[in-house]
Amino acid sequence: MQAIVYDEYGGPEVLRLAEVADPKVGPDSVLVRAKAASVNPVDWKLREGGLDAFMDTVFPAIPGWDVAGVVEQPGIAVPEFAPGDEVIGYVRKDVVGGGTYAELVAAPVRTLARKPANVTWTQAASLPLAGLTAYQALLKTLRVGKGDTLVVHAASGGVGLFAVQIAQTLGARVIGTASPANHEFLRGLGAEPVSYGEGLPQRVRELVPEGATAVLDLYGAGTLATTSELAAPEARVASVADPSVAQQGGSYVFVRPDSADLSALVDMVERGELTIEVAETFPLSQAAAAQRRSAEGHPRGKIAIEVS
């Protein structure tokens, strides 16, 4: 099969398209013929060696944790899926190497759910990691609900757009930080946008004088320093970008594969409660360009890769 691989840590130039052996299918795994994958910041951070301290990498490594495709072969202990089933997955394993930028992906069954019937392959591949991050942060960590005012930092990014929509289904009022170019789009999703930069706490307080009751930081880069100024004293705070939040009384969120959570997101998509915004799409052969685009900044929505 064809796959994107890298033989050592480094910049996007270490990525190359290669012919590699088809992955083996373990008893609890599912062989998926990939239609699409998506790019997440963790992909290029892993490529740079940023998580080497706690995740082993087997070279040549195939990057990617998101996939959408068709079941080719279920493992011998997998009754949940059959050949021909359309699935999506957040295929994170304990070892980095057998990723999703490939024609075939061996995915643990615990990482998969059925594909939403009403979206494209690239949209479907853009849901798992980012959608699960937002879902688990809001429901399991911050426990957002009716009566909450939630501030989402980087609301127009891949995770942010999901967080804005999910929070509203939970009954929360949502204030989203974003560049002015994305304000109208966020308003269309029901959020109240505010601009980044100096004076942010004051702009939030103009909207909610008593302060936000929950804050979700998806940006890092010192964002937490302003939290106490824009949040109520008892506010719950979580970050997916800054582990130091734990030393400040908040919670650090690292998303985990969960079929039930992913299925809940699929149901939301099919009910029309959750839309998936794909900012750009690249062919598999241009995976390096796709990762460069991800590392450059914050496109509105997700970056997808067409595999086949």
From TrEMBL:
It comes from the Bacteria. SUPFAM superfamilies: GroES-like, NAD(P)-binding Rossmann-fold domains. Residues 10-305 form the Enoyl reductase (ER) domain. This is NADP-dependent oxidoreductase. The lineage of its organism: Bacteria, Bacillati, Actinomycetota, Actinomycetes, Streptosporangiales. It comes from Salinactinospora qingdaonensis. InterPro entries: ADH-like_N (IPR013154), Chloroplast_QOR (IPR052733), ER (IPR020843), GroES-like_sf (IPR011032), NAD(P)-bd_dom_sf (IPR036291).
